[in-house]
């Protein structure tokens, strides 16, 4: 694709990507390319790529299927888990439908128990993720990488060589770098684009299967944003907010809108939409590629880790780098690990970084849009 | 040129008119009724000539703030309450508790600026709505609850946090012959405890505490709340207007 459109149109086309990929995933199937569906940023997509498969995220973001899910799952459970299970159960998600392999992981209690039930619908390969980040955990997760590779080999009746993995690592590192460079444009004050536009690209990209082409597009996009910025294009000075907490998408984009419609701009996503997904690279200069992959993923600062120093480290760096005026944490209802950890995140943000912090708890309904607006508007008025 | 602050809450709509020296020229409140737009019409009808709408700057706040079509700016009630608290109680660092119709909030304020705030979640426990529903159930005006509670003979506890369940709890208490006074006490005690939970989240809970909102004329409730949070909670009759006062002050500061 050449960048012939205006940038806002390009961002909008990324917003439509999920739907556009419904057809794409069917075409891939017809070409004999297996689909590997996953639910988490701890999923090592490089191994699926090395198997010649197309990885896709199945995390659901709408309340459409929650009623169906609540027939099997408790009401007081995180909406992401309920919605994901509901889409699988009702067969309303084409990506789930076409997935040859579903990969779950032992992150939070709600998810790992849900996968046991999901396994009745379709086989789930469960990655056993350690909840600490020491060397013993790296060894443990490395073994999981090998076990997952062997599972893929059996399932797809092919061998995966180390060279295949290294090639996938090389490509995915480049993609991640491109994404990181893209959101690096938000260091500028005033910002060149809105945080919502950035989000559309980050989110839409997860539904792209042509990874190399995507990477080139993102690299080109970043160059173009920088060029237009130099020519004087920007969105004006606004209070600068970093988002942290649970993943955002679909229904919860209401939080992004509430920030930007009330005069703020989101300069960074310290969550699974941004930093946690693409902020890290796999070391290529290594003898043991399985260990390198394991190490990269295990380093993600998710609240399921105990202790979880990397989240504080990364958040602190982002606050400095993006000159944040405030941190907004969005937690999904009943997400215990993020909810409990928010006490220390608040202390860190307000006492060590000396900027305001607000936590909002929400679900996939739209019934709290008014309340969210008031809280978030008041938060922005503090700056 | 005068300055208008309009705070359309879920229960009451408060209006304050100021001159450019922040002297109050006029203030009143009306029940919001079923619609913020309707409330606004009634406000316009009641405003005297000191607030000729073609010749004022207006800041609107409260949940109905968007209804005020002629407002020069809308600002959230959190920011306005902080400003109003400064107007009423001064520059000193303080904590403000506002018990509104559908929201209860605690705000740390210093020199009129919000430093931190917490609000109740989607639930109505601990809000004015809770008090209103329960008073209705007892068949008394909301304002009488305070008097009744003062004459209680027993420290009755209402254990349900949910408004709907608390209402049925009251029905069964009344069925057992429990006195109105004791039930009234139980209702106010429940509100004060819910407020304490919110209050205890503030980083610095050891500051002068001020109450704003509809309950600030309920002297017995004030005493109860002071006992429960362990700090003397102070207020002024005008504190009911804190949001509208803050809006008027912000109107002077932004447009004056």
Low-confidence stretches of chain A: none
Query: What is the CATH third-level topology name of the domain at 2-79 and 242-255 in chain B?
Result: Nucleotidyltransferase, domain 5
Q: What gross morphology of chain B would you assign?
A: globular
Helix content of chain A: 40-55%
General shape of chain A: globular
Count of β-strands of chain A: 8
> Biggest interface in this structure?
A-B, 13 and 16 residues
CATH superfamily of the domain at 2-79 and 242-255 in chain B: ATPase, nucleotide binding domain
> Secondary-structure element sequence of chain B?
EEEHEEHEEEHHHHEHEH
The share of residues in helices of chain B is 25-40%
**What is the first-to-last residue Cα distance of chain A?**
40 Å
Structural class of chain A: alpha/beta
Number of helices of chain B: 8
From the 3D coordinates, which CATH architecture of the domain at 7-160 in chain A would you assign?
A: 3-Layer(aba) Sandwich
Largest beta sheet: strand ordering of chain B: 3-2-1-4-5
H and E order of chain A: HHEHEHHHEHEHHHHEHEHHHEHEH
First-to-last CA distance of chain B: 8 Å
Oligomer: heterodimer
What is the tally of beta strands of chain B? 10
Tell me the number of helical segments of chain A per DSSP (H or I, 4 or more residues long). 17
């Amino acid at each position: 694709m050449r960048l012939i459109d205006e940038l806002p149109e390009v961002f909008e086309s990324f917003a439509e990507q999920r739907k556009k990929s419904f057809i794409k995933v069917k075409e891939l199937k017809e070409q004999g390319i297996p689909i590997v569906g996953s639910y988490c940023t701890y999923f090592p997509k490089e191994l699926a790529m090395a198997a010649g498969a197309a990885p896709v995220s199945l995390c659901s973001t709408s309340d459409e299927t929650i009623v169906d899910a609540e027939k099997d799952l408790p009401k007081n459970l995180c909406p992401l888990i309920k919605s994901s299970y509901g889409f699988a159960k009702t067969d309303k998600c084409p990506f789930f439908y076409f997935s040859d392999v579903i990969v779950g992981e032992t992150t939070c209690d709600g998810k790992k128990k849900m996968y046991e039930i999901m396994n009745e619908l379709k086989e789930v390969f469960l990655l056993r993720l350690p909840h600490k980040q020491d060397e013993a955990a790296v060894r443990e997760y490395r073994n999981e990488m090998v076990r997952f590779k062997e599972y893929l080999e059996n399932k797809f009746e092919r061998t995966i060589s180390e060279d295949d993995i290294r090639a996938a690592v090389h490509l995915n590192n480049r993609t991640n770098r491109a994404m990181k460079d893209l959101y690096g444009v938000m260091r500028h004050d005033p910002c060149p684009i809105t945080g919502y536009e950035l989000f559309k690209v980050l989110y839409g990209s997860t539904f792209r299967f042509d990874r190399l082409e995507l990477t080139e597009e993102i690299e080109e996009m970043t160059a173009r944003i920088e060029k237009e910025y130099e020519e004087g294009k920007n969105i004006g000075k606004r209070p600068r907010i970093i988002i942290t907490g649970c993943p955002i998408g679909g229904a919860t984009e209401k939080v992004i809108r509430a920030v930007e419609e009330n005069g703020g701009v989101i300069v960074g996503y310290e969550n699974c939409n941004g930093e946690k997904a693409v902020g890290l690279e796999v070391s290529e200069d290594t003898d043991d590629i399985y260990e390198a992959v394991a190490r990269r993923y295990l380093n993600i600062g998710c609240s399921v880790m105990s202790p979880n120093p990397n989240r504080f480290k990364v958040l602190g760096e982002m606050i400095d780098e993006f000159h944040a005026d405030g941190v907004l944490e969005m937690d999904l209802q009943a997400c215990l690990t993020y909810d409990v950890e928010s006490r220390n995140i608040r202390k860190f943000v307000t006492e060590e970084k000396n900027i305001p912090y607000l936590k909002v708890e929400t679900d996939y309904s739209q019934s709290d849009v008014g309340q969210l607006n008031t809280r978030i508007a008041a938060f922005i008025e503090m700056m | 040129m005068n300055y208008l602050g309009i705070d359309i809450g879920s229960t009451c709509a408060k209006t304050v008119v100021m001159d450019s020296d922040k002297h109050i020229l006029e203030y009143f409140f009306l029940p919001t009724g079923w619609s913020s737009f309707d409330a606004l019409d009634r406000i316009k009808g009641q405003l005297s000539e000191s607030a000729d709408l073609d010749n004022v700057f207006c800041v609107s706040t409260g949940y109905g703030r968007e209804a005020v079509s002629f407002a020069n700016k809308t600002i959230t009630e959190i920011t306005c309450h902080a400003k109003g608290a400064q107007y009423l109680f001064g520059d000193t660092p303080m904590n403000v508790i506002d018990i509104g119709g559908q929201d209860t909030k605690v705000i740390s304020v210093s020199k009129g600026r919000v430093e931190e705030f917490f609000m109740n979640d989607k639930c109505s426990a601990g809000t004015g709505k809770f008090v209103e529903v329960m008073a209705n159930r007892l068949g008394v005006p909301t304002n009488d609850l305070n008097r009744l509670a003062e004459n209680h003979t027993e420290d009755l506890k209402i254990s349900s946090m949910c408004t709907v369940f608390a209402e049925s709890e009251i029905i069964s208490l009344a069925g057992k012959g429990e006195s109105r006074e004791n039930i009234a006490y139980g209702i106010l005690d429940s509100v004060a405890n819910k407020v304490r939970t919110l209050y205890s989240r503030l980083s610095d809970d050891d500051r002068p505490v001020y109450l704003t909102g509809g309950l600030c004329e309920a002297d017995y409730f004030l005493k109860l709340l002071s006992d429960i949070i362990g700090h003397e909670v102070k207020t002024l009759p005008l504190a009911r207007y804190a949001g509208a006062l803050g809006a008027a002050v912000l109107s002077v500061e932004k447009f004056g």
